[in-house]
Structure formats: structure tokens, C-alpha cells
Amino acid sequence: MNYQEIFEKISDELKDFEQIGQVAAYIPALAKANPNSFGMYLVTEEGHEYAHGDTDTPFSIQSISKVLSLVYAFKLVGTDLWKRVGVEPSGSPFNSLVQLEYEQGIPRNPLINAGAIVICDILLSHLNEPYDNFIAFVRELAGNSGIDYSSKTAESEKACGFKNNAHINLMKSFGNIENDVEEVLDFYFHLCSIEMSCKDLAQTFMFLARSGKNPLNGKQVLSARETKRINAIMLLCGFYDEAGEFAFKVGLPGKSGVGGGIVAIYPDQYSIAVWSPGLNSKGNSSKGIKALEIFTTITQSNVFGPSPIFDELEYE
Ligand code: DON
Fold this sequence. Notes:
Layout: H1 3-13, E1 39-44, E2 49-53, E3 59-60, H2 65-77, H3 98-102, H4 113-126, H5 130-142, H6 151-158, H7 162-173, H8 181-193, E4 195-196, H9 198-204, H10 206-209, H11 224-237, H12 243-249, E5 254-256, E6 261-266, E7 270-275, H13 286-299
Antiparallel strand pairs: 1-2, 1-7, 3-4, 5-6, 6-7
Helix pairs in contact: 1-13, 2-4, 4-7, 4-8, 5-9, 6-8
The structure holds 6-diazenyl-5-OXO-L-norleucine.
């Protein structure tokens, strides 16, 4: 399959895309993003890589880090994790507080803000050098030792992170936060602030398309069974109150962030990352979702259909 041509076709088709949306302005550091940035990067099972557009520019991965922190915590504490956080889709915005009180401080899932904050609490309790350990984990997955936190973005978010403060305090009142709330939130904001390119993201998530094995060094990050669980959570919760729509249109497990990145995987086949900072009303990259919808339509690759037929594909 000529992925390069497919990327060009997508880019052409979306040249004048009108519903590009707004960049995230509630975190001042993200408001400066250029809404016209656009990149797509694909890594295949055979190790081939395809790039289009701004694929080497690092951007703020924001909530995409929630999958990586979930994986790390799952490795550390195993199934005990599910005593602190659920695995059900929330059907609510990523920062909604409504369910958290009804459900006694146990977040619906690890990919909404409340859930990711609990995961940060667990990591702080189990790691000696949480900031160093976590970034080392990400760098190894990406095969890029240059990946780092952006203290500027973390501080910018901290200065106006009132809702995340509300989440953590509510959970603390229910006994679901062990550490100091300021320390947990600082760690959470730093994880969100990590900067990666489309290339880094596609490479990093490849282990989730390879039954848990990091293709760069052959290390088993998670077992195949654990990997299934992470992919299931991404499919059901990765896009918040747009998870159904993403499954409906794209048909792959994936994760978005308010920096405009999306990464999605097709088990045994590929990992793909897209970046376009304009967000729709649900906080997900508008053009990014459209680009992935076209990609999986042309390639007939989605987890709900038959195995793809890689020749004689037609798209119209
Ligand atoms: O806590 C926040 O609001 C941000 N640091 C992350 C939110 C996010 O990326 C949601 N994703 N679409």
C-alpha cells in the first residue's frame, strides 16, 4: 500500500478544511500554537515509517500522557489499580466533576483528568525518582533521549488549574489520594507538559500494536493480556464524550490531547499519530479526527471490520 500517496490525498482533501476549531486557550502556554500546523506519521509492523507535514516538531502531548502513566502504574501495581480507578467510559467532558461525587471519589476511568490524577498519586507512592523515572520510560519507548517536560507549560497550567485542584481535593476528601495534593498536581501538570513530535508519538505507541513488545529493543512492556486492557480503555475512553464518535468514524483505539495530537493503533499492523492544534467542542483535534477517518476508510483498517485487503482498494 502506498501510504505516502494516501497521506498526500488526505492532506489535499483537507487543505481547506473549515471546521478546524480553536486552539486550547484555557492553558495560556497552548494558546500560542499555530492552528495551521499539520502532521501525520505512520509506523508499520514491519518497521516502515511514513511522514507527512510537521512530523518532527515537538508539541504538548497533554492528555496523551495519560495512557503512558496508566501503563507505568499498571506495570507497578497490577490489578490493584482497579480498586482506585474504574474502566467505564464517562460520557462526560475530560474535566467534568459531576460523576466524581456520586461515585465516592473513584474516577470512572484513567483517561479523564480525575483518573489520571489518581494514577499520578500511585506513581508518586511507588517511584523513588518519579520525574526522572517517568521521562526515562517515555524516552525508551520513543527511542528518543531528547524528549522532556516543558516547565513553562506546566507552570502555565498550574497558575490556572482550578478545576484540577477541585478534582484532587474532592478525591482526597474521599480518601482516594495518598500524597500531598500540591505534589500530585505538580507531577500531573508535568506529565501533561511533555513535548513530543508525531514521529515520537507513533513510535512510542507501537508497543500497544505489538502485544506489549517495544519493537525498538524487544522488551516486553506489558503482557499481551495487559495490552488488551489498555487498548480497550483507549477505545472506550480515549476521546471522552466523543469516544463513540471516534469509534464510529475511525474505528481504532486511540488517545487525544488538547495540544492537538492524536495517536491511534491498529493491532498487529501500525501506529499512527496526527497533529493539528485546532480543537472541536469536545477538546479533540478536529482536523486530526477527520484525517484519521479518511485514513482508515482508504486503508480499510479498523478493529470492527474484516482484516484489511491491502490491494485493489478503492476510495470515494
Ligand atoms: O488537565 C488538563 O486539562 C490538561 N492538562 C489535559 C487535558 C487534555 O488534554 C484533554 N484531552 N483532550
